[in-house]
Amino acid sequence: MTKKTPERDNTAIIKAGLSKRHRKETIFRTMGLTSLVIGFCLVLFLLSDITHKAIPAFHQHWVKLDVNYDAEWLGYEAGDSSLEDLSYRTVFRKSVYQMFPEVSGRKNKRKVAGLFTTNAEFKIREQIIANPELIGTTKPLWVRIDDDVDVYLKETQNIGEPLIRIDEFEASLVKKLYDSNRIEKRFNFEFFTSGDSREPELAGVKGALMGTALTMLVTLLLSFPLGVAAAIYLEEFAPKNRWTDIIEVNINNLAAVPSIIFGLLGLAVIINIFGLPRSAPLVGGIVLSLMTLPTIIIASRASIKAVPPSIREAAFGIGASKVQTSFGHVLPMAMPGILTGTIIGLAQALGETAPLLMIGMVAFIVDVPAGVTDAATVMPVQIFLWADSPERAFLAKTSAAILVLLGFLFAMNASASYLRRRFESN
Fold first, then answer.
1. What pTM value is reported for the model?
2. What CA–CA distance (Å, rounded) separates 51 from 43?
């Protein structure tokens, strides 16, 4: 009987250990890959669900109304120079009643007028002001249909049968309009060109989108140079002592402060003490800059620290000063990492709602802001407001606004990624 040598015993032990380690590595890689697949599937499911719910918001039904621009209904007399204050509502209602002469009774007539958007009379007003010669004529005019009717047409399988919020009488009126080819489905361009409205068929994202762009512009202009300057000072110029240690600890702590605290700070200091206007992108940008600064500073310091010391030594060797070395050699090499930190900070600021609610950007804003001091709202707040609305048509518009916000985020990240690649290639 032969006895195993110690060398052979060690080889068997090593092989067993390697096999065990390889099994663990395989299990770890499998778990990691599985996690990635599950995460990707969940994100894909989420985006698919949002897109499915958003599709109805990108098209809208319009109805052709035969408008009788009767001078008596308008209250217009020959020679009148002002067309601003004529009785356009009377023209709208009587024109609608003419289309349904068989309808009688105040309640039923109210339902007939309710098939059309409340903005119809303003469309008539615009037509008269632009073309006064229409007075005394009857011309067709395409106007938006009411939001409940619009949802009904998108969801019903049989036009003419009652559905949620559309009774049998209203369904019969819709069927009459549909059978006479007076209803048409169009792409909803107004969703991107209109501001907010309490009527779902009139609401758009242009105001919130402009407010978001202005707010993020202010945030970028304030947080990026201040964050990079602070990072360069702390890494390249500040002495390593007790005070700089305290500053570093506070910067790290600020990155973990709840965002609503910055909103309270903006309300108490920026608005109440400095008197800046509420609901303005300028105030929102300042508040989001305070929240974004710690992230940019931390990422910028890490990027500057990662620059090889040989770069600094080579710059000093050819006679460059400390400032020339920092801004001419270290900063360009650290810029890709700095831009990565900036993307993370701005992406976080883009989705914030709580601090902006505290400074009044939750207000109902109809007009599109033209500057950083105009009253405005932002996309996350707009989504919050629409999601809380009881009208069913706002469900699709909420999902569509989420897609617009994601598109804005992707565009912003793509721009930063392009700049980062440019710095990496130089």
1. 0.85
2. 12
